[in-house]
Write a structure and sequence with these properties.
With 215 residues, this protein is mainly alpha-helical. 75% of the residues lie in helices and 0% in strands. Helix 2 packs across helix 8, helix 3 runs parallel beside helix 7 and helix 3 runs antiparallel to helix 8.
Length: 215
């Protein structure tokens, strides 16, 4: 039986990542602001399919590759830590922007293109790759049952958290953008929270000595 601590841990990390600016948030927010809530939700459908692709790859045992080549796993973790650290700096550096800034110059796209771009954006998102290949495997315990079922459950937790929060972001993007305009303190608080979460994850990932569990 999988430990509830693992489920809560993955949920907390998923929440921290989905609330920090990245390719997914930038794409969903920009489409919601410029083309409406419906366009944002269609794009989110593509993002969700991207999550399922990562989940399928993890469940099928891609971590076995990193177990056989531990240097590759270490390199991935360090690269992921550097990437998260870079995102933290982007959020905290003076003069950095907010993903909720209005964007009026984007062209209107068809539903098919919105869906495809959402899928592509997520598949090429380094933050999600780090989540599935380096973070989630740390919560898998071979003594708690089949590794594939644990990976499936933990990945499903991440998907639920990410889709629900992203759907809320899509629905509230226009309102949030209007609220933040003219409120620099709120913008600074938002960026401070995001930068702190990303920085903490970067430090944890850089100094963690765990190894992936093989299916």
């Amino acid at each position: 039986m999988i430990d509830s601590t693992a489920i809560l841990g993955v949920a907390a990390i998923a929440l921290g990542l989905v609330l920090t600016p990245g390719p997914n948030m930038l794409y969903l927010v920009s489409r919601s602001i410029t083309q409406g809530r419906g366009a944002g939700l269609i794009s989110l459908g593509g993002v969700a399919i991207g999550f399922l692709v990562y989940l399928a790859a993890t469940t099928l045992g891609i971590s076995a590759v990193f177990s056989a080549v531990p240097q590759a796993y270490t390199a991935l973790k360090l690269a992921g830590a550097c990437y998260l650290g870079w995102l933290a700096w982007q959020a905290l550096r003076p003069g950095s922007g907010t993903p909720f800034a209005p964007r009026q110059t984007l062209p209107r796209d068809s539903p098919a293109r919105l869906f495809t771009m959402g899928l592509t954006t997520n598949l090429l998102n380094p933050k999600i790759a780090v989540m599935y290949l380096a973070l989630i495997p740390q919560f898998v315990d071979s003594d708690s049952g089949p590794v594939w079922s644990q990976s499936l459950l933990l990945g499903s937790v991440q998907i639920v958290v990410a889709v629900v929060v992203n759907a809320a972001i899509v629905c509230l993007a226009v309102s949030v953008a209007g609220f933040l305009q003219g409120r620099p303190r709120w913008i600074r608080a938002q960026k401070l929270m995001m930068g702190s979460v990303l920085g903490g994850l970067a430090v944890h990932l850089a100094f963690d000595r765990g190894r992936p569990t093989v299916v």
